[in-house]
């Protein structure tokens, strides 16, 4: 077997930790050569647990190490721009978590840099690798439900992430709904042309400080003439609830459900099943498969299946939704396209 690709994970929080675990345990052509977290204790703890040979709190240590070919960026969204820019200029291949950047001008600058440096860069829209969403996509493309005419997305977190995360997340539309905006474009085979969004704080008053909301609804119109909606919530205290539906002219596809293990518990008081608790559980396979696909590209096979352009398109929809929520008006996307 040829030499393994030496990779580093930056940011070892709620998600970066799982990317590190996946590189160590499930990606056959990669090795986790280094990890980085600005919190040295976190870096040390994860390095010890996963037996990673090098850990640091300074991203520069990774950037200047020419033996490391891949950077997996899973630090807060507000840090993506700087790390992406430096990683591309240092000649690394990059996997970056969604959202690509915290604002659109940064995203467009990254597109320019990545193209100039000819850098491999994949964005972490993992739903595109989730077996249920993939099956839905294949059925739609096979014509099983006719022409897609309505998209519905539900993305509910069991609770709000910690306050520092919210502060650097870009807000509900940029952080959460962006998953539905991306998968909507993908499943509907059509671009979003306008959005009309609403939002409220129902449970977490601290969000007002960041002009954020914990519940939102975005109505979408597509260039094909189709329509849709995307609900996002931080208030699903019962579990992690990700569902979707595509209605076509000849049928409908439901995607996802709440069930965790495939068991039912029957007692006199009712019929129970356990509920998915969090994103690492719901998207275990998707997080593995997106990295496996990325490392194949780094090895020279194919091109990234979720590109910087996809990252920008989804961000444009998210920013239009945020503007619509703030102004109370429908926002056309054409006015926002910057490239
Ligand atoms: N695809 C998904 O399903 C999904 C799920 C969760 C988070 N995310 C994305 O992943 C990113 C991280 O989110 P999270 O929930 O893991 O955040 P988190 O706050 O749990 O963890 C972030 C970690 O990054 C570290 N960090 C901060 N600045 C850094 C820097 N410059 N270099 C290296 N490390 C740094 C922090 O100390 C922390 O340990 C965000 O962009 C978020 O949108 C994606």
TrEMBL record:
Record-annotated Gfo/Idh/MocA-like oxidoreductase C-terminal domain positions: 137-333
Keywords: Oxidoreductase
Any one GO molecular function term: nucleotide binding
InterPro entries per the UniProt record, alphabetical: Gfo/Idh/MocA-like_OxRdtase_C (IPR004104), Gfo/Idh/MocA-like_OxRdtase_N (IPR000683), NAD(P)-bd_dom_sf (IPR036291)
Gene3D superfamilies: Dihydrodipicolinate Reductase, domain 2, NAD(P)-binding Rossmann-like Domain
Spans through the membrane: none
Pfam families according to UniProt: GFO_IDH_MocA, GFO_IDH_MocA_C
Domain Gfo/Idh/MocA-like oxidoreductase N-terminal residue range list: 5-125
Family, as annotated: Belongs to the Gfo/Idh/MocA family.
Protein's UniProt name: Dehydrogenase
Gene: yisS
